[in-house]
Amino acid sequence: MTDIASVKDKYSEQITGAADLKMLDDIRVAALGKKGEVSMMMRGLGQMSPDEKKVMGPALNGLKNEIAALIETRKSALELDAMNAALASETMDMSLPVNISTGTLHPVQQVMEEMAVIFSDMGFTVAEGPDIEDDFHNFAALNFPPGHPARDMHDTFFMTPDADGEQKVLRTHTSPVQIRTMINQKPPIRIIAPGRTYRCDSDQTHTPMFHQVEGLVIEEGTHMGHLKGVLMDFVSAFFETDVDVQFRPHHFPFTEPSAEMDVRYERDGAAIKIGQGDKWMEILGCGMVHPNVLRACGIDPDIYQGFAFGMGVDRLAMLKYGMPDLRDMFAGDTRWLGHYGFSPLLQANLATGLS
Ligand code: PHE
To answer: What pLDDT was estimated at residue 203?
Structure first.
């Protein structure tokens, strides 16, 4: 067997000589990778006598740890060099004038910021999650068991299965952020989660990518009255006028009881006026978090209750700012963006107005 000290010297010399991170990683693979030299030496332990093993086992382990430590040290040094080089070469001219006549905030961005302002005033913070989700967060933990018919209603986009057979999805709603939050945070919880969502659907009122804002509150003694109060306050603040609402019973697997909230509206020629009138329009889904969902996240439903809601941002933007076709929102037409966009320097706030 190759002498341990000479192997160590060989790699230590190579590591010191590694000129960049790529070279260093090649050395790591050659020494410690699955088929690396040190790994193969360790595999040889199996054929040794117990006495040999007693000596060679710790020696090889020591070799492995020493090489790993040398690689780590060299890696930190190379990373520092790379950062210093970038800092020295990249410059920014802070004295250039800002051109605010061409750049605008997309209405979806504007509306998400308006929502964040309203909910942060009620003590909510903003949470985020990934667009590519696994089955557990998008479905199973939200009380959609495998084969549940409600899964089919989501028109899910499936990713190609990974090497280990796991099939991820493009999240069909922002509700998986509820799960991520409840697993990582202890109650009391009060969050909203704005973000992109995806369903295989396209017409005048549906696009395959759209936006939702999710809300979640978990606290002892929370009840439906809190849910209603929060959402009623929200819509009036959002539409900047008194808005009459009604709650209709509905079904979602992850809430019980569940409801949809409608706002009163009327048509004024081609325009839609939200607030008063004799028609009702559905704008969000909501309900009390299902005990199975709390349990899936390690929260005891006998102690904590909570409510959740989810709404389509694009639709709310269309209603508030009068855009007729949802598809225009994502067409990237600069004339449309110039017309419907918002000044990036005017920040939404409750004191001087949201928009
Ligand atoms: N996730 C639901 C949907 O996309 C909306 C919802 C969220 C309903 C939270 C209830 C509670 O349709």
So the answer is: 82
